[in-house]
Design brief:
131 residues; globular
Length: 131
Amino acid sequence: KLVDIELRDEKGDVRKLSDVAGKGKPTIVVFSVMTAPDSPDFNRRLSEVYKKRGGGLEIYQVSLDADEYEWKQSAKNLPWITVYNSSTDGNSNLINYNVKNLPTTYIISNGEIVERVDDLSKLQSAVAKYM
């Protein structure tokens, strides 16, 4: 089942995963670090999946960056929901989603976690199953 996440986006607004997931569109939930060396390539590939689905898909990206300012600079240009899990927010979201490596990606469909995608090259085909 979906475990809700409630964090602030780059504008300071509280964004709940449950407000996005289960609203008729599959949702990709991503745990990542925006300032990681491989992050630009990862986000580019994520963007390809997002654009191909033409509004039929949501992305909720949880960032675990150490520097909030750097995260905001990276997040402000992304077309999907990005939220910040600061050190003061704790690690309950990581525990609830069994995050051991970054990035970690899940697909939620109809309010249920349906798949964990460890290989980003398979994300496009994985998402297609739930469209």
